[in-house]
Amino acid sequence: LQPRGVLYSKFTLVEQWDSPGEREPCVFGVELGQLVEREKTVTKVPLLIQKCVAEIEKRGLKVVGLYRLCGSAAVKKELRDAFERDSAAVTLSEQLYPDINVITGILKDFLRELPTPLITPTLYHVVLEAMAKRPPRGPPGERDAVTLLDCLPSVEKATLTRLLDHLSLVASFHDFNRMNSQNIAVCFGPVLLTQNQEPRRSAAATRSYAHSEDIASAVDFKRHIEVLHYLLQQLFQGSVTPPHCCSGPPLFPLAGPYPCPPPSNSSPGGPPICCWSAPPQLFPEPEGPFGPRLNLKDFDALILDLERELAKQINVCL
């Protein structure tokens, strides 16, 4: 063979920890008990939840539509990899992660990927029984609601207690962030519960209904929201105290056109958000928790209202 030209070759070096499938997950998709035992946390709450919740409570409680936006997918991937490498070394400062939606998105992803849902099937059915026995518009039974969590293992109980405490605090700022307990339940109900908590029909009975699976899924989704809303209404009611860091002026005023949000509320790499003009009563607090007679039409209307109001109030400057 005679050389008749130059052959150019290009090689790409991929680090082993970045290769898909090469590294076992250490945080996401890991059982809570195993994760807490490895991290050796005193509070029995995973470091990811501790750090995300603390940072959100520090600078995100007054952000309109908190927990509704996902943030940059690329930045979320970067933060996710950082937690997988070493949760203890992760710093969620405003300089490193100015978009609070990245942090809320990572928290929801972690909860969604748990092998066992944080609200277990046992707790789910216990809460449904408590809701059925509660008299209409009865006074909140805080002591009974706290007792409901006793059916959980210690790690799950500590983690869910911390998360519900945080979500109750977020709901207490609904005048600013427009996320009352009902809207939070819509966001977190499907995250904290799986889609198969409800008992299913037999195969023969299922075949007799063309859309039985779709209907059952819709009913499950609605009941998941009802269960979380009930817990948020009952637990820590009247005991949520705003942190000292949130005692200043609101991020946005309650009336009139809203000024441009600060950099901490804009997605990195995306178009800036110029103006908010949401009405003061964007999401009024409901008179009471979801009732057992709430039909699917009411439920669908609630979802559509939430999506429409949060979407139409943002003017994007190109």
Automatic annotation (TrEMBL):
<dbReference type="GO" id="GO:0046578">
    <property type="term" value="P:regulation of Ras protein signal transduction"/>
</dbReference>
<comment type="function">
    <text>GTPase activator for the Rho-type GTPases. As a GCM1 downstream effector, it is involved in placental development and positively regulates trophoblast cells migration. It regulates cytoskeletal remodeling by controlling the activity of Rho GTPases including RHOA, CDC42 and RAC1.</text>
</comment>
<dbReference type="GO" id="GO:0005096">
    <property type="term" value="F:GTPase activator activity"/>
</dbReference>
<dbReference type="GO" id="GO:0097060">
    <property type="term" value="C:synaptic membrane"/>
</dbReference>
<feature type="domain" description="Rho-GAP">
    <location>
        <begin position="30"/>
        <end position="239"/>
    </location>
</feature>
<keyword id="KW-0597">Phosphoprotein</keyword>
<protein>
    <recommendedName>
        <fullName>Rho GTPase-activating protein SYDE1</fullName>
    </recommendedName>
</protein>
<keyword id="KW-0449">Lipoprotein</keyword>
<keyword id="KW-0343">GTPase activation</keyword>
<dbReference type="GO" id="GO:0007165">
    <property type="term" value="P:signal transduction"/>
</dbReference>
<dbReference type="Pfam" id="PF00620">
    <property type="entry name" value="RhoGAP"/>
</dbReference>
<dbReference type="GO" id="GO:0016477">
    <property type="term" value="P:cell migration"/>
</dbReference>
<dbReference type="InterPro" id="IPR000198">
    <property type="entry name" value="RhoGAP_dom"/>
</dbReference>
<dbReference type="InterPro" id="IPR008936">
    <property type="entry name" value="Rho_GTPase_activation_prot"/>
</dbReference>
<keyword id="KW-0564">Palmitate</keyword>
<dbReference type="InterPro" id="IPR052118">
    <property type="entry name" value="Rho-GAP_regulator"/>
</dbReference>
